[in-house]
Design brief:
With about 120 residues, the chain is α+β, with helices and mostly antiparallel strands. The protein is built from four helices and four strands, in the order βαβαααββ.
Length: about 120
């Protein structure tokens, strides 16, 4: 799924924090790096025309909230972490569509890899 036609986008890439998510005890104990990429679909016209931050999403505030989710209460699965972020993004009234990708580059995988990630996308419609 991609941003629906007729919507503009705000993209936040590479929000990085240390979290204690995972199914293994050592993941909870030691923590590891998680990275989030967030795309929001919304109509940016009203904010642009009125020069009014309240008609868009304050991406500085949103990035801090995403960071806080990563650094906050642990979950077993990055799927759960991504869904928390999606739900948070949909709290912003102008947002009609959201895509969140959570990367876990230090995942405990026995083979060489460069990244593991999950993406969840949701829309209001």
């Amino acid at each position: 799924m991609s941003c629906p036609d007729g919507l503009d986008r705000i993209d936040l890439r590479g929000i990085t924090a240390r979290g204690r998510h995972g199914v293994f005890g050592f993941e909870r104990e030691n923590g590891q790096t998680f990275i989030a990429d967030v795309s929001l679909g919304l109509d940016l016209g009203p904010a642009a025309t009125a020069h009014d931050l309240s008609q868009t999403v304050d991406y500085g505030g949103l990035s801090q909230r995403i960071h806080d989710v990563i650094a906050g209460r642990p979950v077993d699965l990055i799927e759960t972490l991504a869904l928390r972020m999606v739900d948070l993004c949909l709290e912003y009234e102008p947002v009609q569509w959201v895509s969140v990708t959570v990367h876990k580059p230090e995942a405990p995988i026995a083979v060489t890899f460069s990244d593991v990630a999950v993406t969840i996308e949701r829309s209001r419609t």
